[in-house]
């Protein structure tokens, strides 16, 4: 290679040892990408949700151990035989959570028992597999059954929450929908499909009207929706108690506060046969999630809801009426919750009782908040709460663990998920919520230290200059200029001449005065 080619090659950008445009090595790039991925995961909601479950179940494990009588007895002689105490603690926790899994998702012993009995009877293949799977998946079908009205009611709550209104009237709206759907179901005799549709529409309309009452009070008189919806809950509850004591709702069975069963044409069809309680309301729950997504993300009225929830004054300036929007929000939310009550009566309960609403109305508030008022989050949170409910009942019956502990676990899960900084602090990722805070603190400290050092250095320099000037003054004895000026350098500049005035002459000795006297 010639020297010219060598020079050209060495001066090319990005080539040569002295170039500053060299790309980073692959190891550094991979490390940077990995760190960014880890930071993204740490900032995401998935890690918070997973660790919330971990912390909630850890605290629940401690409570389970405390509630177990055998474990408490074994801890009494822990220092004598620690292995027995640790074994009892482990068995208590693992058996409790295994029972919860069996009651909520899949019953492994039930599956094995049915499969073994069918094989002993001579069965094989699908004749064994399908019945065994049906026995094993029965807990999952119960979880889906419990989650169905909960998801629908949570979708209604999410509408009001995203519009900036805190709707606490889920129980009253659900009771109104259940009463209307149940009354139409056991009073009228209509064709098979029409009867079911009319019952669902009656429940939806009743829930919308009940929610619209709070919306009207909010829009017309400015009443706080929290207070009005809570009061409407009690009104609906006692109205149900009164109705179940009247002939219109009790029928021939007036000795007990229950209504007649709804007609066969008004019942939601079962999906897996008479051996399971799972009904077609599951499709309505999925449809409610889709309606929530379309309403709040793709419709004009949903845009109005979100605009008023974000900034009512800006929405009013844009031509959106906050009062009318508040009425529509609570009416739509009440309609969805009323549909949940109708599904619960027509699919699961089949009749009206004093406890028909249960805790669905208040659980829907928690599920909506836990799911961040989004369709996917609501579905997952609804399945979670339903699984904890069904699994907790089986855990109580099989292991003797109080059902109240399951509710404590539910509350802990919600508490941790509602406080992501707390979860990240517990797992040592506190800096994720304040990225760059430590580096900014270090930079501020370095800047402060540098400023202090500069101030000290400048002070020392000023002191040194003052000392040298004083030394030179003492050497001359008169304070005359020293250095270059004493050696014949440039003299100090003389002051400017005073301006001419018409008044008396300046003091004697001035050049101008002597010249005037000589002329005279």
TrEMBL record:
Which Gene Ontology cellular-component terms appear in the entry? Answer: plasma membrane
Q: Name one GO molecular function term.
A: transmembrane transporter activity
Q: Which residue stretches belong to region Disordered?
A: 1-29, 437-520
According to the lineage, what is the superkingdom? Bacteria
Residue ranges with Basic residues bias: 437-448
Give residue spans, biased composition: Low complexity. 452-491
InterPro entries the UniProt entry points to: ABC_transp_permease
Q: How does it sit in the membrane?
A: Multi-pass membrane protein
Q: Which residues form a coiled coil?
A: none
List residues traversing the bilayer: 46-67, 165-186, 192-214, 226-244, 278-296, 326-346, 377-395, 407-429
Q: Name one Pfam family in it.
A: BPD_transp_2
**Where is the protein situated, by its record's location annotation?**
Cell membrane
| Protein's UniProt keywords contain Transmembrane helix | yes
Can you name this protein?
ABC transporter permease
- This chain's source organism reads Brachybacterium avium
């Amino acid at each position: 290679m010639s020297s010219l080619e060598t020079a050209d090659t060495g001066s090319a950008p990005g080539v040569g040892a002295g170039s500053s445009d060299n790309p980073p090595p692959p190891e550094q790039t991979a490390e940077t990408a990995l760190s960014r991925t880890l930071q993204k995961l740490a900032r995401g909601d998935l890690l918070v949700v997973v660790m919330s479950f971990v912390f909630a179940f850890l605290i629940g494990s401690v409570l389970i151990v405390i509630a177990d009588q055998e474990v408490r007895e074994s801890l009494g002689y822990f220092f004598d035989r620690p292995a027995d105490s640790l074994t009892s603690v482990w068995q208590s926790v693992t058996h409790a959570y295994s029972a919860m899994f069996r009651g909520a998702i899949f019953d492994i012993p039930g599956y094995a028992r049915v499969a073994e009995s069918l094989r002993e009877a001579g069965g094989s293949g699908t004749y064994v597999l399908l019945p065994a799977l049906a026995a094993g998946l029965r807990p999952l079908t119960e979880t889906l059954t419990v989650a169905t009205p909960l998801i629908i009611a949570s979708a209604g709550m999410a509408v009001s929450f995203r519009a900036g209104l805190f709707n606490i009237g889920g129980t009253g709206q659900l009771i109104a929908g259940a009463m209307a759907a149940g009354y139409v179901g056991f009073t009228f005799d209509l064709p098979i499909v029409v009867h079911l549709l009319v019952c669902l529409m009656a429940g939806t309309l009743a829930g919308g009207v009940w929610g619209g009452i709070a919306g009207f009070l909010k829009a017309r008189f400015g009443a706080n929706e929290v207070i009005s919806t809570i009061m409407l809950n009690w009104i609906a509850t006692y109205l149900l108690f009164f109705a179940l004591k009247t002939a219109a709702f009790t029928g021939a069975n007036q000795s007990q506060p229950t209504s007649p069963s709804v007609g066969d044409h008004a019942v939601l069809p079962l999906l897996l046969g008479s051996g399971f309680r799972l009904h077609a309301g599951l499709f309505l729950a999925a449809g409610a999630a889709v309606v929530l997504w379309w309403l709040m993300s793709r419709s004009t009225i949903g845009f109005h809801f979100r605009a008023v929830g974000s900034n009512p004054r800006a929405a009013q300036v844009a031509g959106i009426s906050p009062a009318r929007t508040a009425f529509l929000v609570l009416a739509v939310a009440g309609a969805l919750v009323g549909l949940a009550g109708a599904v619960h009566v027509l699919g699961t309960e089949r009749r009206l009782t004093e406890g028909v609403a249960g805790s669905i109305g208040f659980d829907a508030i928690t599920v909506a908040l836990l799911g961040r008022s989004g369709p996917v989050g609501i579905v997952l949170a609804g399945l979670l709460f339903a699984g904890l409910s069904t699994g907790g009942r089986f855990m109580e019956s099989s292991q003797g663990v109080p059902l109240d502990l399951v509710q404590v676990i539910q509350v802990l899960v919600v508490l941790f998920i509602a406080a992501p900084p707390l979860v990240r602090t517990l797992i040592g990722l506190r800096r994720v919520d304040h990225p760059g805070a430590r580096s900014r603190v270090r930079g501020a400290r370095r800047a402060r230290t540098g400023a202090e050092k500069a101030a000290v250095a400048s002070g020392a320099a000023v002191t040194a200059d003052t000392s040298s000037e004083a030394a030179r003054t003492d050497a001359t004895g008169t304070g005359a200029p020293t250095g270059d000026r004493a050696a014949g350098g440039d003299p100090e500049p003389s002051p400017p001449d005073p301006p001419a005035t018409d008044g008396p002459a300046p003091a004697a000795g001035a050049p101008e005065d002597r010249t005037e006297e000589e002329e005279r």
